[in-house]
């Protein structure tokens, strides 16, 4: 007797019960439900959700009228201004893919991205006109349409655009009938990762993942409807960890700012009653190191997501004292920004700060709507034992994982080998199931056949009261192969010597893990506050060659 | 020159970046991240998420071992007990579809559902053994495997099952390697709607919708991680509005109870620090009408979702005074329970109670992850003007909309005509975009050619201090065709006459809308507190026939 599945027939998808998942739906709802709530604050500018939605529709309509649509790339070279926020909706509403350029890059990198991404249109801000003019001239006849985003708050600079942003918007219809993507798997954004070697790779993300990771951010953070979010994290970095879309979902207010300036940050927090922000530990360090008188009048708690590096104990403790409640998250551009969270367990709050810092420094567990983050043996893809010691590679699986790298099937296949996304970060799995980075893959120091985690050495140095930041890389060594070399930035007004810091580490580290050399000075950082270890490695290499 | 879409090639789905959306992922994560947090409380029983997950895997494994899998139906006739909660995970983990039976139904309805749904297995509780024995005997040789869920807290009753639930679980492996559905569109649940005429229709929902509406509940309610949820809403009603899955997503605690008893409710609230609950207005009314001494010691605010009927002003006001913060939501079984929300706007809180009640009584706007709820002309499917007056049919569109009705292509096609789900509820669209029910389709009273909204008449009666509940139906009338007839239940210890209530309504209603007859007595209600108007209509018909 054949078994007939009663659920297999006549229960198909149709327009009533199946809609492509896209974060563009969030702004439509925000404008519908909370049309008059403030969406954007920037200098003296205030715009509500109805106005913001109308401007995004104008942008989409104007792009479409110029023939831009699915499969086309629109690049933007913009700081955290309202135009940058609008691009996150207006560009994909036209069907095109948004490519946010890292504004700290040089002309050759920008030219590479514009060429490789085949940008048809570029929105640019005069602060970056020097670099952008060079990049555009390198493109020659393949120059895209350049739209100049005028901004009274920008520093002086050359005007590059064929048309101004406001004039361009005026070409579009505020009621433009944009469409959801034909398929939720369609590309929404292209973000180039700043690899340490070779050309940048173009991470292509999709509407489904952006929708889900935006919702996941809201759930992970228990983000209340109508929050006030301060844009300390660059939107060019993994689309601001999906937060333009999160703010539309929660119909909150985005407070925009062009640069990280603690004085301005505190003024904005006071004026707009900021409730939420994101950033690397360095952002919070800067806020904590602001003179007390500038921090006065911040009555309420600010909630902060921190990623890019584990928050040091001093930052956790300082934030607690300053009324900033930190949550440590972890991710990469390939997983839409934060995609793992160091979920706080009952009881952690009452532990001593050192223990709290140790627990909160871990990369944690999957985001609520991410499927898995774990540590696997990169060869066998078998899970490592959850012993906190066995090192493997951190891998993700789930719907908030990129489509792949643009026009780079080799890198894509490598990243997805065995059905997991390989982060390249090495880590361990703790007995409670939390993932902990032991080292970015390239950061392992192999000394006398023993692996040394540079992070472990950095952690030890961070315990010294004079140390603001520390980065440890491998120094070639005739006897041991490699030894740890530490680059240390001291706190303003603090002092320490090489011998003092090495002595300080003795009780904290096995002998072979002690830094053999300490170099003092400011550390090179990316725009998002990540220390650029490849620069330090380069310095070490040059120095070794001379010696 | 052909335009080549650079995003069209080499960026396909694979095991790393595409996973079927299913709420089953939530319990895996809850058990992984919060294994020791309490998942279930029931009488003296406490079970954490690790234990609960292991039991659900046992259930799935035991079902699979008996040959149950995709396309099979597993029915349950259970109150809000831990087994009922576990069935929401264990059954779909086996690939089967969960059919929760309404425990208030009679044997012929149950027999119809078991037969129509082709249930292969039934889990049952001895409280319902009378009805279930009759239903099973009607099935004859098509009797499914009956599993007896033993419960010390159940009233006495006959044992029906071939095997006990605990023995059945013992057949399964606590580490059973369950699989996500092959397709997120696969069925997860079958819920029969209690139609007023004809056979019940079997609403088939899918994993994708259950996942999204669970997340939508969490976002709409800004539900904190680790909430304590009291099960005042039957889980057999649209899968408890998706809340078994929501509680897994937020790794919260479910406090189970067999029946709505205000004394027990307050005891549970006190003991377990309940933070959240759901129910029809009647549930909150009952809680408010509990003597003050039983309500003592409830220090914190409880947040309640209310649906099934708009919360009357007295309930909103009473809840405020009692520390229960209500949010009005709206939905149907076909849209996974709540799928629209009367989102509160800034400023509402400071309005007078009558105005606040008027605003909050509306069905509102789409849930955060639902695409649309609106009012359309049922013929043309064009939106009605947002004037608060033009009546149309309330319709939904989005991913939290059923697959269709089981083995009922005609009803499915009708429900989805024109690419919208037709609720059958009539309503208007207010200028602020909020949907407001004016009448369930069958409740319109047509008097002298004028439509009368029975809800409007009921609202007027609810303003009278002696009225607990009022329901208005059409009374056949020789002159006018139909006139409103009101059935009124008075508050305990209150009194009112027919003439008094009609006089009371005069300033509130147009003359032709005044109730022409008022019948006093207890109102017939469904298990979820909805007034059964079809019973009242039947009474009116019988009475008219005699007169």
List keywords for this structure.
homodimer, 547 residues, alpha/beta, nine-stranded mixed beta sheet, eight-stranded mixed beta sheet, 17 helices, 26 strands
Spans of at least 5 consecutive residues with low confidence of chain A: none
Return the structural class of chain A: alpha/beta
Identify the quaternary structure here: homodimer
Largest interface, counted with CB-CB under 8 A? Answer: A-B, 70 and 70 residues
- Main sheet record of chain A: 9 strands, mixed
Strand content of chain A: 25-35%
Tally of alpha and pi helices of chain A: 17
Helix coverage percent of chain A? 25-40%
**Radius of gyration of chain A, Cα only, in angstroms?**
24 Å
How many beta-strand segments of chain A?
26
Question: If strands are numbered along the chain, what order do they take across the biggest sheet of chain A?
Answer: 2-1-11-10-12-13-14-15-16
Overall shape of chain A: it is globular
Mean pLDDT score of chain A, rounded?
92
- State the end-to-end distance of chain A: 83 Å
InterPro entries (chains A, B): AMP-bd_C (IPR025110), AMP-bd_C_sf (IPR045851), AMP-binding_CS (IPR020845), AMP-dep_synth/lig_dom (IPR000873), ANL_N_sf (IPR042099)
Keywords (chains A, B): Fatty acid metabolism, Ligase, Lipid metabolism
Organism (chains A, B): Variovorax ureilyticus
Protein name (chains A, B): Acyl-CoA synthetase
């Amino acid at each position: 007797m054949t078994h007939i599945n009663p659920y297999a027939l006549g229960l198909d998808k149709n327009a009533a019960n199946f809609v492509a998942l896209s974060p563009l739906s969030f702004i439509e709802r925000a404008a519908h439900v909370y049309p008059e709530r403030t969406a954007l604050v920037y200098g003296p500018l205030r715009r509500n959700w109805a106005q913001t939605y109308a401007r995004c529709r104008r942008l989409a309509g104007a792009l479409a009228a110029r023939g831009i649509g699915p499969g086309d790339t629109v690049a933007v070279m913009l700081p955290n201004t309202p135009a940058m926020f609008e691009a996150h909706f207006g560009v994909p509403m036209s069907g095109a893919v948004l490519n946010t350029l890292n504004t700290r890059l040089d002309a050759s990198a920008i030219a590479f991205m514009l060429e490789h991404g085949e940008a048809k249109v570029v929105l640019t801000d005069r602060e970056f006109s020097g670099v952008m003019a060079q990049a555009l001239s390198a493109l020659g006849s393949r120059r895209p349409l350049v739209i100049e985003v005028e901004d009274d708050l920008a520093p002086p600079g050359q005007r590059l655009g064929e048309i101004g942003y406001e004039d361009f918007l005026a070409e579009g219809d505020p009621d433009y009938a944009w469409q959801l993507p034909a398929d939720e798997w369609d590309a929404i954004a292209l973000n180039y990762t700043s690899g340490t070697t070779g050309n940048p790779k173009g991470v292509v993300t999709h509407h489904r993942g952006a929708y889900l990771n935006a919702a996941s951010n809201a759930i992970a953070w228990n983000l209340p409807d109508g929050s006030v979010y301060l844009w300390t994290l660059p939107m060019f970095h993994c689309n601001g960890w999906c937060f333009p879309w999160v703010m539309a979902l929660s119909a909150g207010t985005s407070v925009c700012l062009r640069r990280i300036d603690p004085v301005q940050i505190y003024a904005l927090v006071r004026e707009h009653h900021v409730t939420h922000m994101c950033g690397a530990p360095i952002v919070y360090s800067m806020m904590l190191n602001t003179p007390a008188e500038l921090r006065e009048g911040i009555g309420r708690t600010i909630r902060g997501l921190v990623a890019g590096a584990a928050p040091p104990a001093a930052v956790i403790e300082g934030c607690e004292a300053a009324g900033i409640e930190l949550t440590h998250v972890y991710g990469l551009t390939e997983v839409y920004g934060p995609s793992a969270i160091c979920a706080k367990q009952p009881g952690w709050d009452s532990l001593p700060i050192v223990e709290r810092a140790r627990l909160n420094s871990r990369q944690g567990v999957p985001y609520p709507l991410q499927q898995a983050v774990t540590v696997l043996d990169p060869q066998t893809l078998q899970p490592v034992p959850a012993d906190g010691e066995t090192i493997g590679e951190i891998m993700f699986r789930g719907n908030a994982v990129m489509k792949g790298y643009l026009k780079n099937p080799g890198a894509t296949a490598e990243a997805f080998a065995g059905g997991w996304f390989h982060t390249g970060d090495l880590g361990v799995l703790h007995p409670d199931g939390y993932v902990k980075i032991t080292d970015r893959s390239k950061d392992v120091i192999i000394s006398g056949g023993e692996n040394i985690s540079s992070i472990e050495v950095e952690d030890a140095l961070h315990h010294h009261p004079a140390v603001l930041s520390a980065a440890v890389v491998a120094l070639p060594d005739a006897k041991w192969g490699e030894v740890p070399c530490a680059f240390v930035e001291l706190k303003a007004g603090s002092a320490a010597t090489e011998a003092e810091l090495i002595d300080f580490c003795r009780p904290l580290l096995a002998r072979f893990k002690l830094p053999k050399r300490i170099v003092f000075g400011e550390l090179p950082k990316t725009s998002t506050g990540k220390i650029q270890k490849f620069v330090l490695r380069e310095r070490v290499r040059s120095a070794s060659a001379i010696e």
